[in-house]
Amino acid sequence: MPRPAWLYNVDSMGGRVVTRIQKWGNSLGLRIPKSFAAEAKVSEGCSVELSVEKGALLVRPLRRRYTLDELLTRVTKSNIHEELSSGAPTGREVW
What we know:
The chain is an alpha+beta fold. It is built from two helices and six strands, in the order ββββαββα. The radius of gyration is 24 Å and the shape is elongated.
């Protein structure tokens, strides 16, 4: 009986996983086990960076970097905190 195309083997080896690269159209595909995806905080559709370092294939999730202006647009009257006192000046701070 032929093996279904969606079936793949995953063997745990001391915190590592051994899986197989499979043909996916004209490219190659790598299936990421659910536990690894959760730990790396990746999900279907997220972007990753592929690189090769010293012969090793590295897959790194791309994390969006926000600018200060983008972050400040999310501050509203309902979610801004009150001013906090950090005590009297101890150096040459200007208050």
